[in-house]
Amino acid sequence: MGHRSCLSAFAWLVLPVLFACQGGACGKSGSSGGGDPSRASEGAQRVQVAVIPKGTSHEFWKSVHAGANKAGRALGFDVFWKGPAREDDRGEQIKIIEDMISRGVAGIVVAPLDDTALVPVLKEAKGENIPVVVIDSGIQWDGHLSFVATDNYKGGELAADHLGKLLDGRGKVVVMRYQEGAASTMKREAGFLDTIKKRFPEIDIVSSNQYGGPTTEAAYSTAENLLIKNTKVDGIFCPNESTTFGMLRALQDVGKAGTIRFVGFDSSKKLVRGLEKGEIDGLVIQDPFAMGEQGVRAVARFRSKKTVDRRIDTGVQIATKDNMNDAQMQALLLPDLKRWLR
Question: What span, in angstroms and rounded, lies between the C-alpha atoms of 70 and 289?
Answer without folding.
Answer: 9
